[in-house]
Amino acid sequence: MSLGGYIFYLALIMLIPLWAQMRVKSTYKQFLKQPLQSGVTGAQVADFIMKQNGVHNVRIEMVDGLMSDHYDPVNKVVRLSREVYQGSTISSAAIAAHEIGHVIQDATDYKMMRVRHSLVPVVNITSNLSFPLLLGGFLFGALGLAQLGVIMMLGAVVFQLITLPVEFDASKRAMAQLTSHGIVTATEETGARKVLNAAAWTYVAATLVAVAELIRLALIVFMPREE
User: Which regions span the lipid bilayer (predicted)?
Assistant: First the structure.
């Protein structure tokens, strides 16, 4: 790869996730200013949807940090950021419903979520080892070491690929719950969908970057150019 091509590549893999993050934050903030007609908070949305789906063993907690919302399947806790937990807006309802989408996946034994969860310990190990192996391989001219580093990277890429259907499915479940239970009105539905779609693009961007970097490094270490 030429110097110009390499600079273009670096700019691309930095700009894609940056664009996705800017999009989700701007969309989130836009609909964080638009109150729900129903007046329910994100915490109430989460609690209501869980009860409607027969889930009674998951706690809801408030945490600090913008867009720090997540579901912890190990401890059975949905953690919602302050803006989502206390807020009564289109964004707070959409994000809360998305996290409960993961709760429903867990309760219904959604296969892709189980696969992703089972990969976490392996990916934690391979991700921590891949960069030192690559760096050591390049510094000491140990091609086998660098190749092993790329193979270790594969685990993280597979994890990213599996994450996509899990996140899209959670958003699909969220919209179904929001609309079927009348939590959002017909006019609010468009905004909720925009929030969920923008959030999904952050995962798409991360996956594209991970795949592109894996391919680039694999070409370097498995198909070295003849001098």
Answer: 6-24, 119-140, 146-166, 200-223
Among candidate residues 221, 213, 219, the one with its CA nearest the CA of residue 16: 213
DSSP labels, 175-199:
HHHHHHTTSS-HHHHHHHHHHHHHH
Q: Which residues are catalytic?
A: 99
8 A C-beta contact, residue 36 and residue 182 = no
DSSP bridge partners of 71:
78
Average pLDDT, the chain: 93
- What does pTM read for this prediction? 0.90
d(CA 70, CA 32): 18
